[in-house]
Amino acid sequence: MSQLDFINWLQSLRSPLLDAFFTAINTTAEDNFITAIAIILLWCVDPLVGLRFLLPLLFSGYLNGVLKDLFHTLRPTAEQVRFLAVPPDGSYAFPSGHTQNAAVLWSYLAGHFRKGTLVVMAVLMIPLVGLARIYRGAHWPVDVLGGMAIGLALVWLALTFYRFWDRRSFSLPLWGQLVFAVFVPVALFVVYPQSSVQTGSALGMVTGLAIERRYVGFPVRLPLWKQAIKVLIGLAVLVALQMLLPRLFPTGPAFRFTRYAILGLWGTLGAPYVFRAIFGPAMDRE
Q1: Which of these, 3, 82, 93, 270, could form a disulfide with 11 (CB 3.0-4.6 Å)?
Q2: Is there a cis peptide before residue 95, judged by omega within 30 degrees of 0?
Q3: Is residue 1 predicted with pLDDT exceeding 80?
Q4: Rounded to 5 degrees, what are φ and ψ at 87?
Q5: CA dist., res. 197 & res. 32, Å (int)
Q6: CA distance linking residue 182 with residue 17, whole number of Å
Q7: Which of 53-57, 78-82, 105-109 has the lowest average pLDDT?
Q8: Cα R_g (the chain), whole angstroms
């Protein structure tokens, strides 16, 4: 069976129920869903865990863009498949970004927390997102398999590095953390300017967390109603910044890099500073 045969066979099963199901599955690999998980981890569970969750996802997005531009694989066309759920946007196909996101997201959560429920979610959700991309006519099967393999490999590398770092009890002074936080994202941005969202976000978040851990120390574990207030306040400002910053900065990769660096700083420094001002200093962190 060829790739095209598989796509057309899968789409031959089309029904309103499957349309709704795969549309819902598709959203779990998009930015809003990932942001929601990241916010909970950063503000309500453990900021370091949240950052370590996001960094492989950001690098995954960076690498996905590089590989798409390297391979120039065209997506299925309306003439080849039974239907396209979303009109083509001009981007290339290999590897599937949604599938790569799902592979990093779920396998990282399963690998870090080592909970049976998360392992089951990873086993189910990663292939389901891949099937959703094929069902919706957005990708070839090889794009999906490539996205899975790359995402799983990145998570294995990230978890291996984090555990090695923690076992050796490595630490950097604040100035070293700030140099690292600025130099690496800027260098990656210079190499591939189309990565402004990922590299700018990484710079802002790593810089912000380094400063927050030294000088702020906001309360992470709080009663549920206070957690809800934290999320509502932090998310409201985040959305406002997303709407306001494009009006303040001209278009272009460098200005987009700056905008997302500011958003990252809000997530790991600005919002925690506000949370400390409202709820007092941390009682549950070193």
Answers
A1: 82
A2: yes
A3: no
A4: -60, 145
A5: 14
A6: 47
A7: 78-82
A8: 20
Helices (H), 80-223: 97-113, 116-135, 141-168, 174-191, 196-215
pLDDT mean over 262-266? 96
Closest CA to 220 of 166, 261, 266, 280: 280
> Which residue, among 244, 241, 233, has the nearest Cα to 274 in the 3D structure?
233
Q: For residue 11, what are its two tokens?
A: 């789409």
C-beta separation of 91 from 161 below 8 A: no
Question: What was the pLDDT predicted at 283?
Answer: 65
Distances (CA, A) of 187 to 51, 180, 214: 20, 10, 25
List, for residues 10-50, the tens digit of each pLDDT value: 988 999 999 999 999 999 999 999 999 999 999 999 999 99
The HSE-up count of residue 213 (CA atoms within 13 Å, CB side) is 19
pLDDT of residue 66: 96
pLDDT value of position 270: 96
Length of the chain: 286
> Could you say which DSSP state residue 195 is in?
G
Average pLDDT, the chain: 92
Do residues 220 and 47 touch, judged by C-beta distance below 8 A? yes
Place of tokens 């997201």: 105
* Model confidence pLDDT, tens digit, residues 99-119: 999 999 999 999 999 999 999
